[in-house]
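Researcher: We're reviewing a set of sequences before deciding which ones to prioritize for further study. For each one, I'd like a predicted 3D structure that I can look through quickly. This is Peptidyl-prolyl cis-trans isomerase. If possible, include the structure in token form so it fits the rest of the review sheet.
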Amino acid sequence: MLKTSVLLGLFLLAVAFVACKKEVPYDQAGELAIDDEMIVKYMADSNVKTLTKHSSGLYYNIIRPGTGTEVLNTDTVYGNYTLKILRDSLPLAKSLDSTFKFMLPGYIEGWKTGVSLIKVGGSIRMVIPSALGYQQRVVTSPNIPPNSILDITLSIVSINKNPK
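Model: Here's the predicted structure for Peptidyl-prolyl cis-trans isomerase, in token form for your review sheet.
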């Protein structure tokens, strides 16, 4: 009986402890500042001078602006991309043909901002701070840890215009 009471007491203490644990709210501005420092250091260490900082915090380099149709946030886009995490510099995902399809309304802010800077036929390199990416969320396919800075090179092959 005493053993059961002690176990029950420990269980209730554990439940109370877990219930009191508060989730820290995401500090977008603070994380953006941290990521900005890391990106600037990466650029200096890697001798990368071609990235421009967008007002949103996205770093980008337009490789080819494209000559086709302007991409809107409501469009379905077909393209090729390579994704790396800045600290690893290893490709995590790569689309090898033009079958990769995405709808802009469902994508991360940095991706949407970067895509809006080019047209069909264009290519862009985007270094996306975590605040404009997946923030604290864990992505499992491909494996992207929380607060990751993404390095994405994207080429837009074609789009389908969707009604607004």
